[in-house]
Amino acid sequence: MKKSERAEIILKELKELYPSPPIPLNHTNAFTLLVAVVLSAQSTDKKVNELTKELFKVADTPEKMKELGVSRIYEYIKQLGLSNQKSKNIYLLSKLIIEEFHGQVPNSFEELESLPGVGHKTASVVMSQVFNIPSFPVDTHIHRLSQRWGITNGDNVRQTEKDLKNIFPISEWNTLHLQIIFYGREHCTARGCDGTKCLMCRTLYPKRKKKFICKKP
Ligand code: SF4
Questions:
Q1: Which residue, judged by its Cα, is nearest atom 6 of ligand 1?
Q2: Helical H runs in the chain?
Q3: Residue 12 shares a structural domain with residue 82
Q4: Fewest C-beta in 10 Å: which of 29, 68, 151, 192?
Q5: Could you tell me the CATH number of the domain that includes residue 163?
């Protein structure tokens, strides 16, 4: 089966399952979404939402976050992995947004990626979910599913992002990355899989009769 045919099957199935997927990280504005995405690295969205509920009550703008300072930010987020570094990054990015961007979250990849703790994936989430600019944030989960579904051979998330952008229409990118994330959480987790249990793989691999373990990450 060609990659384009696989892409069509995947799109159709995901649209049926998740017609309008919500943004999983709670936020009230561009700044709080940016902070939530930075906090979500190596942590679950559920835990981030639990902790930001209190943090955003006292600091939902760069000014208030800067005012809070590193040590008090840390107190709110200390249950997360990498909390020391994340506290410093959140403080510094708030300061930079005030000093360099007039208190507004910037809307370009270059400017977003210049902020501490903000990599390409985080910038892509903000670009797509806040500014509605077509982006395809690829994390390890989307990378894993793309490998299992045979729509990329990429060894890393950047290559997978390129492949997905090539095979899916640009109008689908912003929703599709959320749909893949939800499918991964619900059906196609990082734990082992026999490659035959879901309708998705039975349709994508109609000739597959035996169990198949995808060795790629
Ligand atoms: S069969 Fe396995 S690889 Fe295929 S979609 Fe289901 S969980 Fe994912």
A1: 198
A2: 3-17, 30-39, 45-58, 62-77, 83-101, 109-112, 120-129, 140-148, 157-167, 173-186, 199-204
A3: no
A4: 192
A5: 1.10.1670.10
